[in-house]
Amino acid sequence: MNLHENTQHRSTSLLTLRKQLEALKEYQCGEHPSRIIFISGIDRNEYETIKNKIKGSGTVKAIYDKCLNSYHFILISYFDLRDAKTVHRILQNKYSVSYAIAKDVLNDNEQNQGTIVVFNIEYSITNTQLKEVFGKYGDIKEIRETPNKKHHKFIEYYDLRNAQKAIEKLNHFEMKGRKIKIEPSRPGGIRQQLILRCVNALKLPNDLIGLPPPHEMIKLIDELIKTKEIMNEITSESFTISLPKPTVVGEELSKRFVGNESVGTPHLINCCESINQIKGIGLNEGEDVDEYKSVIVINNIPMTFSSNELINRIEKCVSCFYDLIFLSEAR
């Protein structure tokens, strides 16, 4: 399968996932409160402003910013649901803010998302009695029953740390002659499986602390499809990558990067490979690796390709650092 066919195949797969997301009514607009806030469409400066705005608005469990440069979103996780709702309210008028979907991580004890399942409850025990026992370990948001399992009940705490305390203190606790069993309630089901498939299709990092809600995932898919369409447009043109006349790097090293001739088809730059080649030269102690840097020139970029689209494409495709990107008006 050539580059053009492979791109078309991936775009078709993404469109299929997009339709499935649109049909997913639950959590469609990211309005179902969770302890993880998803903020999209921001840059590094706005990120710093957001961090200042949320100071004093509750204890932050984690901030995930690995996708800030490439996908322009961050995730902020709180222990207490009330703190997450407060921050959502503070930021919603200025930024694109929604609630992320909790991600199940089996080896993380705190990933109960504040809800526990109590098994083997005696029929006559009321919700009021349960609240008296379990409320000692923190504020309870809700107690829910399962229609077909009268011995099971879900107890949701505002703070997931309190849910963990209840598990530690009350598991195998005896109530009215029965020993109850307590486990964290873990997110899952078809909804989460679909979101996870989208995460894999978009090649988002595996260590996300939460999953983007469906409407935000659709935005990411649309952006990726748009990028692929632009790359198809580039494929149909004479798109070349070459190095300028060698300076400090030297002619021989330049050839090691791109060969003797410019590349006549789209070519993803493997910077890791290039860096390894530089290391293979054998720098003397005290020598600066900057002396071995060079410039890559990309010719015949379509006028519809903006500087932001070029930067996003480069940051998605390469894994090393660059000092400067300059997009000339004359292409």
UniProtKB/TrEMBL annotation:
InterPro entries in the cross-refs: Nucleotide-bd_a/b_plait_sf, RBD_domain_sf, RRM_dom
A GO molecular function held by the record: RNA binding
Signal peptide: none
Keywords for this protein: RNA-binding
The RRM domain, residue ranges: 114-187
Protein origin, superkingdom: Eukaryota
The UniProt record lists the keyword Isomerase: no
Coiled-coil intervals: none
Protein name per Swiss-Prot or TrEMBL: RNA-binding protein, putative
Species name: Entamoeba histolytica KU27
